Amino acid sequence: YEDVLRVFNRPEDFSSDRFRKLDSDYTSERPDVKAVGKVLGDWLVFRDPPDHTRLRALLQRSFTPRQLEKNRERVQSTIDDLLDRALERREFDFIADFAFPLPAMVIALLLGAPAEDIDALKSWSDRLASYLGGASDGRDNFAEARDGVERLVEYFTALLGEKRREPRDDLMSLMLRAEHDGDKLTPDEVVSNCVLLLFAGHETTTNLLGNGLYHLLHNPEQREILRRDRRATPDAVEELLRYDGPVPATAKVAARELEWHDRTIRKGQMVIPFIASANRDPRQFDAPDELDLGRRPGRHLGFGFGIHFCLGAPLARLEAQLAFDSLLRRAPELSLAEEPRWKPMIFLRGLESLSLRV
After folding, report:
1. How confident is the model at residue 266 (pLDDT cuts 50, 70, 90)?
2. Is the CB of residue 115 less than 8 Å from the CB of residue 109?
3. pLDDT surpassing 80 at residue 135
4. How far is the CA of 214 from the CAs of 117, 152, 240, 311, 315, in angstroms?
């Protein structure tokens, strides 16, 4: 835990800019890789200060508590509609029928994308997921990722033109208007970070919901605590993030030569802090391998830490709290129809499907 925290707390030593600062042992001249890196290099999560400081200040204005609270009813009504359809069938796939469409619909609508475009956006985003997730099944995912990124950029560039002509009360319009110390986002930065918000806004929350429900089903006494006391939901979401969060690891780059536990890390080498390991450190958490919804949340690292603490954490928490509360209230007798398969990825942790019986 302390090692991972140290990496997150020292951006001057551990850069997030893997697209510009990796040494030649890790980089690729493949056109597909370069094309993906060109767009992702503008993402907030892959920038260092002072660029990160400027981008974060501008994007943060689209994620104020007031802005999120305005969307509480929209999130709840989306949850209710999805549950109405899923629970009618008595057997359903929680990922395909609920955990994916909920955050995808919420983030797309928040960005100002029409609801009828969500399936296409999901398809393009999925092509990027195997690349960013570190797919471990041997596939060549760079060409797929390039195709997905280029289509998303094309889509959001066209949408940006519409927002310029007719600004609305959505995140994309807010990004266009946002100003900090006389500075504004460039059109490329708006488009790139819309791709980031779409991808991160649904992929990770889908996995939080799927992983969380899977473990609640395997721990019925903990699920009952949550079902009986709705006030326990916020702390329960934090414990689920600690226990089996959607982002088990991330990648940094050594910004200078460092000595670490009697090892030398060279400038430009990749460093992989494992969040999942930090969140199970017995020096930080008592009985870390037990799911305990009564645990005081503590400082889990499920949303990262320091300057790169997840910008969308309040939205993810809101969606998860409302989703688990609604699900356990309306379907207390849920059970697994079959054991699921996990996605073969290193940097994203989630289920391919979760078949449930009511």
Report:
1. very high
2. yes
3. no
4. 29, 31, 10, 26, 21
Strand partners, 318: none
Q: What is the CA radius of gyration of the chain?
A: 20
Which two structure tokens, joined as six digits, stand for 287?
């009985």
- The rounded distance, in Å, linking the Cα atoms of 146 and 328 is 40
- Report d(CA 307, CA 5) in Å as an integer: 12
In whole angstroms, what is the distance from residue 187 CA to residue 24 CA? 30
Query: Tens of pLDDT along 227-260?
Result: 999 899 999 999 999 999 999 999 999 999 999 9
Query: Which DSSP category does 251 fall into?
Result: -
- Separate counts of helices (H) and strands (E) for the chain: 16, 8
Please give the residue that has the higher pLDDT: either 121 or 24: 121
Q: What is the pLDDT of residue 136?
A: 64
Residues 6 or more apart whose CB falls under 8 angstroms from that of 150 comprise 35
